[in-house]
């Protein structure tokens, strides 16, 4: 038996006919960029999340940096971000010329809400909360309160959390903006690149729409210096199909996760926990193991591919050496980077495959 980590073709096969039909319909329509499919998807996704507006963009990274730009964040400003963030979140901050200020994560791998206030300075303008691995950040109500008290914008990075909930509300509805990615391996993934900004603020939505299209509202009249970041019609048409099936896909994912949670029994493996009032969408199933590197090697010998999200925290990346951090500056993020491991989890994973992974994990002796 061989088990890989990201098996995406089975997800396509599940609704193959519907996907094929939607692509053909789009090809025949004659609209390929910013047409009826994008408009329909924006409406349907906003409704699914529970926000008033959604604007389709070319990627999750674009959603983050364009969002920051529209909020007026730039040079001289500080933005709080968790120290175990995915690199895109940090790059969005530095792309607009602002400075990332790292806050250590809690035991659920999200920003530790208890540590936020100590990191706020006079230059802090925003907090980016990533709902990492599909698990919503706990105490979003407190995060909102802190932002209000300190006059900060709240940006949610929902690239891994389509549909996850805190206290009955979906992620992406708590902040000034919610940033989504539709990269193929995400829970709501398209078949190429895509992203979106969700917001309840009509003015923000309008400005993002203008910005994504060269800063023009009326063709060839440019109001602001914008960019080209548009979700294309084909991807929007495909996303509309997947969105219709997202709850079904989630149920399948939850089933697999329940197997992992109830059947993995090995004292060397620390299973993920779900915080109070949180519903995770399990973008990744991340365990921790002190002998992680040995475990990866052992699984590899048994033809099981397990990936590390992520092996190097942003403050230790070569790209960010100018920030001047060193090993030991963010010990929790560094510990996670050395011990986390994502077990295979994908739509279409068979009982035999997951049972095999569980069996091998349980046999691991360190
Ligand atoms: C995937 C991802 C992004 C970036 O999305 P792209 O569509 O790849 O640009 C940003 N943040 C997080 C947490 C992600 O997982």
3D architecture notes:
By secondary structure, the chain is an alpha/beta fold. The longest helix has 18 residues, at 246-263. It has 13 helices and 14 strands. Strands 1-9-8-5-4-2-3 form a 7-stranded mixed sheet, with helices on both faces. A 3-stranded antiparallel sheet has the order 7-6-12, with no helix packed on it. Helix 4 packs parallel to helix 5 (87-95) and helix 10 (246-263) runs parallel beside helix 13. It has helices at 9-14, 16-29, 36-49, 60-70, 87-95, 116-119, 140-149, 202-212, 233-244, 246-263, 292-301, 331-339, 351-363, and strands spanning 53-57, 78-82, 99-103, 124-130, 153-157, 165-166, 169-170, 177-181, 195-199, 216-218, 221-222, 278-279, 285-288, 340-343. The structure holds pyridoxal-5'-phosphate. Pyridoxal-5'-phosphate binds next to helix 4 and helix 5.
Summarize the helices and strands and which ones pair or pack:
Blueprint: H1 9-14, H2 16-29, H3 36-49, E1 53-57, H4 60-70, E2 78-82, H5 87-95, E3 99-103, H6 116-119, E4 124-130, H7 140-149, E5 153-157, E6 165-166, E7 169-170, E8 177-181, E9 195-199, H8 202-212, E10 216-218, E11 221-222, H9 233-244, H10 246-263, E12 278-279, E13 285-288, H11 292-301, H12 331-339, E14 340-343, H13 351-363
Helix pairs in contact: 2-9, 3-9, 4-5, 10-13
The chain binds pyridoxal-5'-phosphate.
Task: Please provide a brief summary of the model.
This protein has 366 residues and is an alpha/beta fold. It contains 13 helices and 14 strands.
- How do the SSEs run, as a string of H and E? HHHEHEHEHEHEEEEEHEEHHEEHHEH
Q: Which ligands accompany this protein?
A: pyridoxal-5'-phosphate
**SSE class:** alpha/beta
Percentage of residues in strands: 15-25%
Morphology call: globular
| Overall average residue pLDDT | 97
- Enumerate the strands of the largest sheet in spatial order, edge to edge or round the barrel: 1-9-8-5-4-2-3
Our measurement of the CA-to-CA distance between the termini, rounded to an integer number of angstroms, reads 22 Å
